[in-house]
Amino acid sequence: MNRTLWIATGSIAVGVVVLGLKTLAWWMTGSVALLSDALESTVNVVTALAALFAIRIAQRPADSTHPYGHHKAEFLSAVLEGVMIIVAALLILDEAWQGIRNPRPLVAPWEGLLVNALAGTINAVWCAILLRQGRRLQSPALVADGHHLLSDVVSSAGVLVGVSLAIATGYPILDPILAALVAVNILWSGWMVMSASLGGLMDKAVPDDLLRDIHETISSNAGGAIEAHDLRTRSAGSMTFVDFHLVMDGNTSVAQAHAICDRIEAALRDRLDNAQITIHVEPEHKAKHSGVLVI
């Protein structure tokens, strides 16, 4: 099992443990806010399962029906995670509304808060691992899972503060009010996860700083060519796709043109961890005098 799959599997185990602790905290206190926190953890487990499934599919090699590979499966998982985050927020809003209409006193609050704090600490540690490793491994599914857990960590912290205030002031209605505020924050988190993933599904170009690096790499390694134009890029999971037209002098032999293309491809692969590069060689009269000019 590679590192990405190992981390995705770990997310399921962590999610189950945290769900158990948060459910125990709710059972001990009867707090609507703690129930909301437990509901979000239920979604965490579901999305962790979806992420593992998507990563397994994304790592399948290209085949006759998917010649460009299965990398976009991770984006689909990330979109699903965004939807599930929003569903969790709506469930929390419903519970909060019921709590506002019928505030209930809390029982055994401090013990329940300690259990919930333990669950939040576990989530915070695992969230940091997911975000760091997801970015390093270029896994949209792991990064989305990390952002999802981050929203859970923030909401858990807010719940702890809110329930503590409800206990200290003697106003139990603060408990569901805080749960509603947490739900709004989670809705925003879900939208951000979805919008980032939809960009990948729509073949959004690589970030501007990486695009500049690609320009510079082509320009610095295309000696013997005239120019490169019609550069297009996109990302799918950990894979980056780059294609462009490379204009050659009419006297350049096929072997010379091939050697130049090989040099550019090798330089781009040194810059990009996983890349699929397509270069279309054109004669001099196709030059547009724009795009990537050769140094």
Automatic annotation (TrEMBL):
Residues 207-284 form the Cation efflux protein cytoplasmic domain. It is found in: Cell membrane. GO terms for cellular component: plasma membrane. InterPro entries: Cation_efflux, Cation_efflux_CTD, Cation_efflux_CTD_sf, Cation_efflux_TM, Cation_efflux_TMD_sf, CDF_Transporter. It holds the Pfam family Cation_efflux. One of its GO terms (biological process) is intracellular zinc ion homeostasis. It comes from the Bacteria. GO terms for molecular function: cadmium ion transmembrane transporter activity; ferrous iron transmembrane transporter activity; zinc efflux antiporter activity. Residues 11-202 form the Cation efflux protein transmembrane domain. Keywords: Cell membrane, Membrane, Transmembrane, Transmembrane helix, Transport. The chain crosses the membrane at residues 5-28, 34-55, 75-93, 113-131, 152-171, 177-202. It is a multi-pass membrane protein. Belongs to the cation diffusion facilitator (CDF) transporter (TC 2.A.4) family. PANTHER family: MITOCHONDRIAL METAL TRANSPORTER 1-RELATED. This is Protein p34. It comes from Paracoccus subflavus.
